[in-house]
Amino acid sequence: MSAPVRILLADDHALVRRGVRLILDAEPDLTVIAEADDGAEAVAQARTADVDLAILDIAMPRQTGLQAARELSRLRPDLRILILTMYDNEQYFFEALKAGACGYVLKSVADRDLVEACRAAIRDEPFIYPGAETTLIRKYLDRVRQGDPLPARPITEREEEILKLVAEGHTSKEIGDILVISAKTVERHRANLLQKLGLRDRLELTRYAIRAGLIEP
Fold it and tell me: CA 52, 55, 61: angle at the middle one, nearest 5?
């Protein structure tokens, strides 16, 4: 049998941590090896503990779970991240994905969803709690039914081409050769992409490209 998935659990409520730990440690393929009571401590723990998965509460002192997720995504791009929260909130959901999390689990149904979410994260598959999926589809259908325009395309077709090539690992010169433009023009487009999407680096561009379906994970 393969070794259990090593988990870092961060929540500022000791009782919540204890309950979640009981759920996880009851599974033979999952084990909590580190705990933190705020986002900053979670980041510090992840620097030293050999963990595969971080489960982060959103609302924590010093550093929120979303802030910790952004930092961990930079420090440990191999680390899988789940957000565990009491907030059934569409904005938080999208912010969590933007921060690098691959799943969003509600505390109210953690006993039902958390184990499945952990296993999905390790398989590098996204986990969306059923309510979020239903809400997103309903909002889309309502928008169409009411004749409202769909959200504007965030990037141009040229930017999308460049984003895909950047995410595939091509250099600016290689992209310029493929698209028959100068490397300087590629750099300008890439800078525009980072600013427009609120991202910081190639890693975040790659994650965005995966979520947008431009490349396979």
Answer: 130
Give the whole-angstrom CA distance, residue 75 versus residue 87: 26
* Paired tokens of 59: 């609302």
Higher pLDDT, 4 or 156: 4
Q: Which residues pair with 31 in a beta bridge?
A: 6
Indicate the pTM of the whole model: 0.63
pLDDT of residue 152: 57
Which candidate, 70, 127, 86, 125, places its Cα nearest to that of 104? 127
Whether residue 125 is predicted with pLDDT greater than 90 in this model: the reply is no
DSSP 3-state of 56: strand
Contacts of 169 (CB under 8 A, 6+ apart): none
Q: What is the DSSP string of 163-207?
A: HHHHHTT--HHHHHHHHTS-HHHHHHHHHHHHHHHT--SHHHHHH
Domains along the chain?
Answer: 5-129 (3.40.50.2300), 157-211 (1.10.10.10)
The token pair at 167 is 């995410």
pLDDT tens-place string over residues 65-101: 888 999 999 999 999 999 998 877 666 777 788 888 9
